[in-house]
Amino acid sequence: MIKVDELPDKLESLEAGSAVALKVDVDVYFDVITALTDDFPRDREMQVIYTTSTISSSTIIKVLNAFDIDRDRVQFVDAVSYMTMGAAEKEEGVTFVESPTMLENLSLKIEYLLRKYPTEENTVVLDSIDSLAIHNENRILSEFLHILISSLRSHECFTFILSVSEQDSEEIDNMLAMVCDDFIEVGNSEEKEEEELV
Amino acid sequence: MDEEELSITPNKERERCVTGIDGLDTILNGGIPRGNSVLITGSCGTGKTTLSLEYLVHGALEEENCLFISVTEASDKMLNNVVPYDFFDESLIEEGYLSFVDMPEIYEELGLLEKSEFSFKEINELIEKIENIVVERDIKRLVIDSVTSVCFQLKSEEKIRDFMLRLMKTLSSHDCTSLLVSEISPEEPRYSQYGVEEAIADGIIMMGNLERHGDLLRTLQVVKMRGTDHSRAKYVLDLTSVGVLLVPMLKGGSAEPETGGGKA
């Protein structure tokens, strides 16, 4: 496990086209989002396509605004708001998918954004595999990941698939190990060590 | 007849009409074999008109003369309802690369507007009129939306067969690659309304709506395409301002019987 403040350096060492599974402690979840949407893409003038099926894009946008993060480089694919009936409000930079079960449509919206806003380098974040696993069978989910990552590799995108440590599942870990190049656990290890000592 | 005339070269690659729709060109191994007449079939709301129009716009961008013959809806009204493409340029129409003709205007010219059924002679005149437009404007890509509506006025299977055969032969002889839009009802267990069109067409692209666990997905499947190897898998599509996008349909999930596109 690495500490969250080590994450930016770790991300810098990645090569374009990499697919990385990020297993994140829930208490550093928003720090990881910040690293992926701000620290990592800022200097490279990279576009970030943030696919959320966990919390609504409007909530993440509020967090980005609170941290004063430039939102212009971030495009959202929101697969959760429609499901909550009425929470999906039209907003600049947000594309909606009706349901997290429409996995092909997630891929299509990512493809659409890559074509609509072509940039030299792109990051795609999938937040999270755990929430997609609530709505989809593992068989179709692993098929989806395989096809999506293969496609994003051909675009030389950096792909990050988030999972939350507290929702640990061996099946999900195996699925990610199959399709990702790297598996990084991110937490606040100092706090953990202190807890263990207590 | 000398030996050279009799020789058959089965492996010779046919020239392609690149549709410009990336996913579709990949499925078709590079595009539609030039001169083919392809049935674009599906029920309402499956994206037939949008896909056909995009095919013409890409052709026009390549400076090929393209024609859309609208049978059921006035073309200006139809244009207002299609997805506004990022790559569309009004100058394509001004410069004549992309043109629109409303079939009722042709019917009126031929005195067919009030006829409930066309005779063989009138079918001939209709095909000759279409041929004249194709030749005069040097049309390389043609869409008829929909061919089902034309067939509605032919009534008998014999006349439909005659019309389809002659139309396709005529277009092919002028190297014109055509998409013939075919409307079917959602429960239709075949690819065309009258069953004749699908047998004669060089290709069939089936567009449908697939219901899976309450979600309705738009799908596309190339059922047949003479003159090329092609994928016969089903793809999910999205109609966007950057054009029609396609991804393979995931097979891990169980599919409920299909609606709006016939065959599951």
Order of helices and strands of chain A: EHEHEHEEHEHHEHEH
Under CATH, the topology of chain A can be stated as Rossmann fold
**Strand line-up of the largest beta sheet of chain A:** 1-8-2-7-6-3-4-5
C-alpha Rg of chain B (nearest Å):
18 Å
Q: What is the typical, i.e. mean, pLDDT of chain A?
A: 90
Content-based structural category of chain B: alpha/beta
Query: What is the beta-strand fraction of chain B?
Result: 25-35%
* Shape descriptor of chain B: globular
Describe what you observe in this structure.
The complex is a heterodimer of chains A (198) and B (264). With 198 residues, chain A is of the alpha/beta class. In chain A, 44% of the residues lie in helices and 21% in strands. Chain A has a single domain, classed as P-loop containing nucleotide triphosphate hydrolases (Rossmann fold, 3-Layer(aba) Sandwich). The longest helix of chain A has 17 residues, at 138-154. Chain B has a single domain (16-206), classed as 3-Layer(aba) Sandwich (Rossmann fold). In chain B, 33% of the residues lie in helices and 26% in strands. Chain B is built from ten helices and eleven strands. In chain B, helix 7 packs parallel to helix 9 (157-173). Chain B is globular, with a radius of gyration of 18 Å. Chain A binds chain B through residues 98-99, 101-105, 107-109, 111-112, 115-116, 136-137, 139-144, 147, 151, and chain B through 86, 212-213, 215, 217, 236-238, 240-242, 245, 247-253.
